[in-house]
């Protein structure tokens, strides 16, 4: 069964450092997303990406965040200067059409120290 | 009012029991509705989409009431493996942003 894969599974970084989280969406999907979940809280939308551009973003997705699809398979989330409050589980997801369910990767646990 | 609201639980039920979860959403323009399950420290996994006419998948039945902005999930004959957090998820407009409820925790006991 096709699945979304994410690397690394766990990343520890120092405050102020840049991190890049990587994702390989399901191969025939066209819509890509990043969500995050702070421990004990609900899953929150960050950004959606379609046709090589951002289609929607939340208030959380400020100038410190960026996304890229550098080649035909990878989808990355970059956090330029990490803060303690960026510590969370980051989920990549993809879907094959608009306004439908999304399929999630296993997540990257980001710990900022 | 929260965009998607759920009773956090936990619901503690014995194996074989029937359990129902409810969810309300605030945006009447919402178009798509889903139930996901999430095991501890794992990713959300799609359980089922929710259609206006109601739909069933094995032991799971989902209902949607657009007038009341209310979604339900019924689990019959609960198994130990059903223990998880159940997430009510709404796509509120023609875009692709999914809005998650806080989840309802279910614990099925032997």
Structure description:
The complex is a heterodimer of chains A (113) and B (110). With 113 residues, chain A is mainly beta. Chain A has strands spanning 5-7, 10-13, 19-24, 31-37, 43-50, 53-57, 65-68, 75-79, 88-95, 103-104, 108-112. In chain A, strands 2, 4, 5, 6, 9, 10 and 11 form a 7-stranded mixed β-sheet that branches. A 4-stranded antiparallel β-sheet of chain A has the order 1-3-8-7, with no helix packed on it. Chain B is mainly beta and 110 residues long. Helices cover 0% and strands 55% of the residues of chain B. Chain B contains no helices and 11 strands. At the A-B interface, β4, β5, β9 and β10 of A face β4, β5 and β10 of B.
Strands, helices and their partners?
The complex is a heterodimer of chains A (113) and B (110).
Chain A: E1 5-7, E2 10-13, E3 19-24, E4 31-37, E5 43-50, E6 53-57, E7 65-68, E8 75-79, E9 88-95, E10 103-104, E11 108-112
Parallel strand pairs in A: 2-11
Antiparallel strand pairs in A: 1-3, 3-8, 4-5, 4-9, 5-6, 7-8, 9-10, 9-11
Chain B: E1 4-6, E2 11-14, E3 19-25, E4 32-38, E5 44-50, E6 55-57, E7 60-65, E8 70-75, E9 84-91, E10 98-100, E11 104-109
Parallel strand pairs in B: 2-11
Antiparallel strand pairs in B: 1-3, 3-8, 4-5, 4-9, 6-7, 7-8, 9-10, 9-11
In short:
The complex is a heterodimer of chains A (113) and B (110). Chain A has 113 residues and is mainly beta. Chain A has no helices and eleven strands.
Give the tags.
heterodimer, A: 113 residues, mainly beta, 7-stranded mixed sheet, 11 strands, globular, B: 110 residues, 6-stranded mixed sheet
Q: Could you describe the largest sheet of chain A, including whether it forms a barrel?
A: 7 strands, mixed
What is the helix content of chain B? under 10%
Order of helices and strands of chain A: EEEEEEEEEEE
Low-pLDDT segments, ≥5 res of chain A: none
Radius of gyration of chain A, rounded?
A: 13 Å
User: Would you report the number of β strands of chain A?
Assistant: 11
């Amino acid at each position: 069964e096709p699945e979304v894969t994410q690397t690394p599974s766990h990343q520890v970084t120092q405050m102020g450092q840049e991190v890049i989280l990587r994702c390989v969406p399901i191969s025939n999907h066209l819509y890509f997303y990043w969500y995050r979940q702070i421990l004990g809280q609900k899953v929150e939308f960050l950004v959606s990406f379609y046709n090589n551009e951002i289609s929607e973003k939340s208030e959380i997705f400020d100038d410190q965040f960026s996304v890229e699809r550098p080649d035909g398979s990878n989808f990355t989330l970059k956090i330029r200067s990490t803060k303690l409050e960026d510590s969370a589980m980051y989920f990549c997801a993809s879907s094959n059409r608009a306004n439908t369910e999304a399929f999630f990767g296993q997540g990257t646990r980001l710990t900022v120290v | 009012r929260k965009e998607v609201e759920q009773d956090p639980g936990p619901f503690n039920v014995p194996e074989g029991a029937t359990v129902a979860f409810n969810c309300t959403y605030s945006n009447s323009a919402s178009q798509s509705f889903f139930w996901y399950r999430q095991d501890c420290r794992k990713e959300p996994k799609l359980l089922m989409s929710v259609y206006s006419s109601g739909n069933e998948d094995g032991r799971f039945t989902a209902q949607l009431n657009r007038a009341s902005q209310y979604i339900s999930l019924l689990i019959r004959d609960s198994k130990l493996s059903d223990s998880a957090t159940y997430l009510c998820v709404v796509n509120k407009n023609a875009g692709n942003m999914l809005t998650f409820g806080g989840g309802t925790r279910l614990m099925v006991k032997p």
